[in-house]
Task: inverse folding
């Protein structure tokens, strides 16, 4: 019969200490657990590689998911456990249980048989403006006012407070986010006041406060305009000159288009521009019923006279 001494002797002769033997055994046990899905806590998930800007570039892997501890279950936070050679790391996105999760800080396991990370459920997707286009990324959101009062749960979108914390994965696109970068979340505009790139590897921590909208913001589709976006790069048909589609004979109408300094009307005798300034113009229509039904075209132009956007305006009578 093999005794513990015999097993110890074989390990000693092979050059392995007791601790190395038991560590290797623990590694093999964990690998077998996840590879063969020997626990209901093991799930096959899709995930992204950290720092990859394309979150549609997904991979598949078995991982073990557990609660933070058995006494305190926080619905928006979990622990994930992966094999030592896994490509999942801080800054990965996990697609599990019909939700998106951001992988956060790595835990220190007392037995180095696998790697353990925290992960937090994303509350919503936001549009990030970059190089003339918008990119969609999931984010976690926390109400910082409630956090200061000692509430632990991550909160979904309750926009009654003016200050929120946002976590978003780091990559080439999101690294363009700067202080005063603006986002629209559920039709309300927010501006970044602080960026933390150090607390969590490959994850950005943003603090945002509520901001005012401007004429280039697309509130319906949650696409915010930022000043570093060249006007010539506008490819969003939902961004339009703001103002009525009509003007009454003898009346005045105001039109807005953020940051525009030059306004022009298509040649017409029915109306003229009476005020032209940055982002705003006013049009005065002649008090002549013969112009009723005529269409006039207003142009928002850059400094070189190139047309950025145009708006068709119909002249109406009072009856």
Result:
């Amino acid at each position: 019969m093999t005794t513990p001494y015999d097993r110890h002797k074989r390990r000693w002769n092979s050059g392995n200490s007791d601790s190395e033997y038991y560590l290797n055994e623990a590694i093999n046990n964990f690998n077998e657990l996840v590879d063969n899905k020997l626990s209901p806590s093991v799930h096959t998930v899709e995930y992204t590689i950290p720092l990859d800007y394309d979150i549609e570039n997904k991979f598949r892997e078995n991982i073990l998911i557990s609660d933070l501890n058995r006494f305190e279950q926080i619905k928006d936070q979990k622990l994930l456990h992966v094999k030592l050679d896994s490509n999942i790391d801080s800054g990965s996105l996990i697609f599990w249980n019909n939700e998106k999760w951001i992988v956060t800080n790595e835990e220190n396991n007392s037995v180095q048989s696998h790697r353990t990370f925290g992960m937090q459920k994303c509350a919503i997707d936001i549009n990030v403006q970059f190089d003339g286009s918008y990119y969609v990324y999931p984010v976690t959101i926390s109400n910082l006012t409630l956090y200061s009062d000692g509430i632990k749960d991550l909160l979904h979108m309750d926009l009654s407070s003016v200050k929120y914390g946002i976590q978003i994965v780091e990559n080439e696109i999101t690294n363009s986010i700067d202080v005063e970068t603006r986002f629209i979340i559920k039709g309300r505009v927010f501006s970044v006041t602080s960026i933390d790139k150090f607390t969590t590897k490959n994850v950005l921590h943003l603090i945002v406060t509520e901001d005012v909208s401007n004429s280039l913001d697309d509130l319906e589709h949650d696409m915010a305009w930022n000043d570093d976006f060249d006007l010539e790069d506008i490819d969003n048909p939902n961004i339009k000159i703001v103002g009525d589609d009509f003007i009454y004979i003898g009346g005045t109408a105001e039109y807005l288009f953020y940051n525009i300094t030059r306004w022009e009307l298509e040649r017409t005798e029915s109306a003229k521009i009476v005020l032209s300034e940055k982002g705003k113009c006013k049009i005065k229509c002649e008090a002549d019923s013969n112009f009723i039904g005529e269409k006039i075209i207003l142009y928002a132009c850059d400094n070189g006279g190139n047309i950025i956007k145009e708006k068709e305006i119909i002249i109406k009578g009072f009856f």
User: Anything to note?
Assistant: The two ends are 108 Å apart (CA to CA). Confidence is low (pLDDT under 50) at residues 147-161.
